[in-house]
Amino acid sequence: MRLPLRGGHRRDVGGAEDPAAPGASTMPRVLFPLLIIAITIVIDIATPSTAQVAPLLVAAPVVAAATLSVRTTAAFSAVVIGLTVALNVYHDVWGQLSSDMTLASACAVGIASIVGAAIRQQRETELRQVRSVAGAAQRALLRPLPPRIDRLALHSVYLAAEAEAQIGGDLYEALPTPYGARVLIGDVRGKGLPAVGVSAVLTGCFREAAYREPTIGEVAGRLEETALREIARDDPSEAYSERFTTALLVEIPPDEPVARIVHLGHPEPLLIDGATVTSHMPDRPGLPIGLGGLVGTLPVPQTIAFRPGERLLLYTDGFIEARNENGVYFPLAASVARHAEGALADLVTALRRDLLRHAGRQLADDAALVVIERLPSTPPPL
């Protein structure tokens, strides 16, 4: 299921179309039980009455109960019971013990199939409600990025590892602030609801601190304080434990052709200049959020050139740790270089496609990616 969102953002949550979802086509699912009935009737008519092929008709309502509505399952059950009676009469075995047992079996299986279909539909309704709530929570947590901030264009993608997952531990945000555009991308260690809780807390903290703190290093300090406070609240004994979040913070001032980056134990960003892709390793890397108190100082931003026409690609480790069947990691930089000169949306779409193809569409970890392009300055009017 793919959920395209506004703001140059695409979120993929994996999995195939829910067969019970409203609007899903029922015709292919109806054909299979019909095919079972048709084949069984042909074989039964073509064989002697002693062959007893008619009991195979009960497979039709069983299959219908697995994929179709209660009403459709009841219709198939009724058809199977009627055909069982008709075949018994056709073979002149009506009233015999074997024919009575066949008819009783058809009735019992039909009733059981109807009950099974009702239970399945009830659970699917509950699941759709849970997915709806999870989707709303995900949209609140990972809001669609704005397509433009000043003279910056942004595009992003999020891929969930689990087919049924709506929420993961990867996070990102981009905000216009008085100090320029500020961007966060991070990866919470762990999975499930604990990772979601940390992701929500850190994203909320960033949205506030990005507007208030005068430097991107101080924004990182606020994130560290928040993470430690949350860890201490949950379990004071876990301070400086394995509950941490790797992250990159980026500040792009509107009046300078530079980007200021704070590395917090996160994979280094890629700078794209035409077909040239450069990996920017940090001069002074910081510790992940939640472990920064071990050094006791604010992380130092690294300033790199970021000129009009260039792109900055931020990603989580799901984009570089995905392996193919031979255990080879996904070559993100090489994939970026192949598609670097296309439009921003085309670049993100191509990277998503290459990643899924490399991993055989089975991701072991969530994967998030944000691409920022500095647009040329608007020429002054003549």
Description:
With 382 residues, this protein is an alpha+beta fold. It has eight helices and 13 strands. The strands form two sheets. Strands 1, 2, 3, 4, 9, 10, 12 and 13 form an eight-stranded mixed β-sheet that branches. A five-stranded antiparallel β-sheet has the order 5-6-7-8-11, with helices on one face. Helix 1 packs parallel to helix 3 (70-90). The longest helix has 45 residues, at 97-141.
Q: Strands, helices and their partners?
A:
Layout: E1 2-5, E2 9-12, H1 27-46, H2 59-67, H3 70-90, H4 97-141, E3 148-149, E4 152-159, E5 170-177, E6 180-188, H5 192-212, H6 216-234, E7 245-252, E8 258-264, E9 270-273, E10 276-279, E11 302-305, E12 311-315, H7 332-339, H8 344-358, E13 367-374
Parallel strand pairs: 2-4
Antiparallel strand pairs: 1-2, 3-4, 4-13, 5-6, 6-7, 7-8, 8-11, 9-10, 9-12, 12-13
Helix pairs in contact: 1-2, 1-3, 2-3, 2-4, 3-4, 5-6, 7-8
